[in-house]
Amino acid sequence: MYKVKTFNLISSKGLERFSRDKYEVSSDASQPHAILLRSHKLHNEVLDNSVLAVARAGAGVNNVPVADYSKRGIAVFNTPGANANAVKELVLAGMLLSSRGIKPGIDHVSTLHNISDAAELHKTLEAQKKQFSGSELKGKTLGIIGLGAIGSLVADMALALGMKVVGFDPALSIEAAWRLSSEVQRAENMHALLAKCDYVSLHVPAIEPTIHMINADALAQAKEGMVLVNFARESIVDPEAVANALDKRILRTYVCDFPEPVFYGREDVIAMPHIGASTAEAEENCAMMAADQIMDFLENGNIKNSVNFPNVAMAREEGQRIIFANENVPKVLGNVLSVLADHNVNVIDMVNKSRGDLAYNIIDVEKMENGHVIDAINSIEHVTSVRLIN
Ligand SMILES: NC(=O)c1ccc[n+]([C@@H]2O[C@H](COP(=O)([O-])OP(=O)(O)OC[C@H]3O[C@@H](n4cnc5c(N)ncnc54)[C@H](O)[C@@H]3O)[C@@H](O)[C@H]2O)c1
Ligand SMILES: O=C(O)[C@H](O)COP(=O)(O)O
């Protein structure tokens, strides 16, 4: 029986993927084989040695200490693109809220509840509505920083609305480049993008090079009156620098999914409670993808959408499967094969792949009589985890 421990509310559509005869899934599982979570922060959790995999039902893995887990041979997964449409739609809402008097207009209407005569109410509203006029998105320029799953959908949406789109992504993958519309203009650097855009939307992961990438220096380059939209992470912007740019009217509005104390009381900040991915569809997509990835990893050792391990998949053969991870240094695979030879174990098929400092291996072998093989592999220098699947 495999045990999966959950944090956060995970969609039942995902939890139902785990068959009850093979899996025990609960928020209080002890000695779990896998963790399934959303935004719960794992940095302060002591993780049982039983854990083989951590799956983030979502995109951002900044709540998971990935580097520490890599050293322990724990595979970390996310669910690329599974919530991208939900975020894209809220980006549109954010841009519309920043451009039209939608929120103040609705608030104003609710203050007129004591006018009981319909004709008088209509007359008052018509007389006052000029305070809530705005401008259109069509014809304006949107800059997108980060053109991955979300950024590329935001680009398509903006082009369909008649906006011009400028993008910046120095780490763009080939796959993401294929997805991108040829109408997206490429900015040479972030400053060039900031200088010419009426709206700028951030879609980068929270990693060392992106922390506070929107700081005082960057905002000094911004086109006056720009709207900054941040559905990525709070740490991508320096909140003090954003507040300062709003004070100086360099920024017209800051739209974000990550409220900060410094923004309270400001009418030029539209802050939402991290609900970019909070749609039934996104929650289901993420949970189902994460559950499938955990099951294929636990049952077959296959890896898809890991953020620290290489993608590896090998069809199952008769016999048994040995799976091990190791530091990516010479001789480890050779030493493991020597152990198998010493114990008279016949190899049927194998795959070895590396990613950065890590290597991952699947070896299918004829059924072994000797129970000490796994212990022997475990004691080889640089092997970080090993297991046997029957
Ligand atoms: N508000 C929410 O609820 C919500 C939901 C989903 C994702 N997110 C956030 O959005 C981020 C992006 O999600 P995604 O699904 O598009 O991820 P993704 O991995 O598909 O795309 C991220 C893109 O950012 C690019 N990038 C990396 N460093 C960069 C840099 N320094 N400058 C410019 N581009 C850079 C990458 O090359 C990649 O193309 C996530 O990491 C997460 O933090 C938030
Ligand atoms: O990175 C993500 O996928 C989002 O921030 C979603 O977070 P959530 O799963 O807590 O809604």
Overview of the molecule:
The protein is an alpha/beta fold. It folds into three domains: 1-83 and 278-309, NAD(P)-binding Rossmann-like Domain (Rossmann fold), CATH 3.40.50.720; 85-100 and 135-271, NAD(P)-binding Rossmann-like Domain (Rossmann fold, 3-Layer(aba) Sandwich); 312-390, ACT domain (Alpha-Beta Plaits, 2-Layer Sandwich), CATH 3.30.70.260. It is built from 13 helices and 16 strands. Strands 8-7-6-9-10-11-12 form a seven-stranded parallel β-sheet, sandwiched between helices. A five-stranded parallel β-sheet has the order 2-1-3-4-5. It has a four-stranded antiparallel β-sheet with strand order 14-15-13-16. Bound molecules: nicotinamide-adenine-dinucleotide and 3-phosphoglyceric acid.
Q: What is the share of helical residues?
A: 25-40%
Sheet with the most strands: spatial strand order: 8-7-6-9-10-11-12
As for the number of domains, it is 3
Low confidence ranges: none
Hetero groups in this structure are:
nicotinamide-adenine-dinucleotide, 3-phosphoglyceric acid
Give the CATH level 1 class of the largest domain.
Alpha Beta
Family: Belongs to the D-isomer specific 2-hydroxyacid dehydrogenase family.
Protein name: D-3-phosphoglycerate dehydrogenase
InterPro entries: ACT-like_dom_sf, ACT_dom, D-isomer_2_OHA_DH_cat_dom, D-isomer_DH_CS1, D-isomer_DH_NAD-bd, NAD(P)-bd_dom_sf
Catalytic activity: (R)-2-hydroxyglutarate + NAD(+) = 2-oxoglutarate + NADH + H(+); (2R)-3-phosphoglycerate + NAD(+) = 3-phosphooxypyruvate + NADH + H(+)
